[in-house]
Amino acid sequence: MYFNEDLTHCTTQTKEFLIEDIINIFNACFQVSHNTILIKGEDEPIYLPADETHSFNRIIFANGFYASALHEIAHWCVAGPTRWNLIDFGYWYCPDGRDKETQSQFENVEIAPQSYEWIFSVAAGFPFQVSCDNLNGSFEPDHREFKKRVHAKVLERLNYPLAPRPAKLVRALQVFYQTPKITQDSFLIT
Q1: At what angle do helices 164-177 and 19-34 cross, to 10 degrees?
Q2: Over pLDDT 90: what percentage of the chain?
Q3: Who has the most CB within 10 Å: 86, 92, 122, 148?
């Protein structure tokens, strides 16, 4: 484990973004308190609640990508305790190849988790890229406009103290990666 129990002391420091690190950081924060672990998966990410064969809730992120881990953690932070009992939190998902109307619906539900993902990325010093996730769709989404909407949600979140779970993860990431305090100026649209 990288942290002592109060997450104030990091015993291993790195600026590399290793999958093992984000897994260990997340699990140190939430395995005991929320019975939830982060797991490196294969192609598609998924959240699976504890069941008769698995004692922990599992956030499974795609292909061992650090950004996917942050994104799936963000979805978990948006979901509440009732949704933790549902596969993929019971959320609607329409895969890549969406038309304009479906893409608009997709983007509306992605603003909240992508805002947390951006906050986590800054806390880790990891580059953030907004994802419209529609490479095979019938039209080109407006990435810049979507990023503005995610940015607005980030700034809105930072007007108040973060919710306990995201706040705990932000603190742990900042300790591990030795990043500065997050302010609204930490988030720029380029």
Answers
A1: 140
A2: 66
A3: 122
Distance CA 53, CA 50 (A): 8
3-state class (DSSP) for residue 6: coil
Distances (CA, A) of 131 to 65, 87, 110, 111: 14, 22, 9, 10
Which stretches within the chain are classed as H helix? 19-34, 66-78, 100-124, 143-158, 164-177
Asked if 16 contacts 176 with a C-beta cutoff of 8 angstroms, the reply is no
Site of tokens 């997050």: 182
Q: Which residue has the tokens 């019975």?
A: 35
Q: Is the pLDDT of residue 96 over 70?
A: no
